[in-house]
Amino acid sequence: MHDEALDNERVHCVPAPGQAQSPRLLRLACPALVCEGWRLTIEAGVERCRSDRGDPDFSLHSSSLRLRALSAMGLDPVTVALPLWRGPLRGAIDAFLGRHVALLADQCWARCQYAPGRAPPGHAAHGWHQDGALHFDFGTLRANRVPLRMLTCWIALTPCGGDAPGLELLRTPLAGLLPPPELDAQRVFEQHASAEFWRPLMGPGDLLLFSGDTLHRTHVAPAMTQHRVSLELRFVAAEDRSPQLRGERRVTLGAA
Ligand SMILES: O=C(O)CCC(=O)C(=O)O
After folding, report:
1. Centroid of ligand 1 to alpha carbon of 57 (angstroms)
2. Which of 49, 51, 109, 128 stands 20 to 30 A from 57 (CA)?
3. What are the structural domain ranges in the chain?
4. 18 or 86: which carries more pLDDT confidence?
5. CA separation, residue 163 to residues 14, 120, 122, 221, 224 (Å)
6. Which of 39, 54, 28 is nearest to 203 (CA)?
7. 42, 63, 111, best to mutate for ligand 1 pocket (most atoms within 8 Å of CB)
């Protein structure tokens, strides 16, 4: 069920340092058995949080759980990130962020998304946004809205994009952060040519790597019948001193 045309967009085609990073897809970056274990752990964790409530690491609205909440169950953010950074993602991450890379350990998430009409009460899909807007205060007057220089690694743990919700991304990163009124779905649709929108079909273990300036949202369509489980990691340069990152727990992955 993979879109063969997308297979050209491999992680080993890295841009020169400092250039924009278009979103790219890497097939089967994580082994299927490992993904299945992660999926089971996440579903159990999300269901437990949904009935217990009160866990600050759980968002009822997005059926998302910070990965750190699953550390004791073997799904620690650093344990997930290290083999990817040492393995298939290293060239792409280092080319974009430099050799001293840090994981934003508290901004790593496990997520469930549901087919329309099958979502639990209170759940909603993610609207258009840029991850580089993390902790950005749009209320302050700023000459330019500079996104964090960040990479998000989004891993599908179940088939998605076809019969289950996936991601929709703009193929070209934007020059700056869009303020909230410009994130309206109709407005985004009007501002970009249809060829710019990308809804990859993904299977367990496939991953998307995209930079903080990439506009994206949950892709959910009326005909979908299945739910999806995914997880995501966020990387920055270890030396990044942007004020938005103040207080964030960074785990440096090293430069070996
Ligand atoms: O998993 C999704 O559907 C959306 C997640 C997302 O866009 C994000 O966390 O930045």
Report:
1. 16
2. 128
3. 11-240
4. 86
5. 31, 18, 22, 8, 4
6. 28
7. 111
- pLDDT at residue 106 greater than cutoff 90: yes
CA of 63 from ligand 1 middle (Å) equals 11
Is 176 in contact with 120 (CB distance < 8 Å)? Answer: no
Distance 73 CA to ligand 1 centre (A): 23
- In this prediction the pTM is 0.91
Q: Which fold has domain 11-240?
A: Jelly Rolls (2.60.120)
Does residue 248 contact residue 131 with C-beta atoms inside 8 Å?
no
CA of 106 to the centre of ligand 1 (A): 15
Query: Interhelix angle for 77-86 vs 90-97, to 10°?
Result: 90
For a pocket test of ligand 1, which of 59, 126, 219 has the largest count of ligand atoms closer than 8 A to its C-beta? Answer: 126
**Helix, strand, or coil (residue 77):** helix
CB 21 within 8 A of CB 11: no
* Index of the ligand 1 atom closest to the CA of residue 126: 4
- How far out from the chain centre does Cα 175 lie? 19
Measure the CA–CA gap between 228 and 223, rounded to whole angstroms. 14
Element (H, E) at 35: helix 32-52
CA distance 218 to 239: 31
Task: Report the half-sphere exposure of 170 (CA within 13 A, side-chain side).
Answer: 21
Which is nearest to 205 in space by CA: 167, 153, 130? 153
Amino acid (1-letter code) at residue 9: E
Q: Which amino acid is at 2?
A: H
In this prediction, residues 5-24 reach a mean pLDDT of 53
Closest C-alpha to ligand 1, atom 10: 131
> In whole angstroms, what is the distance from residue 140 CA to residue 138 CA?
6
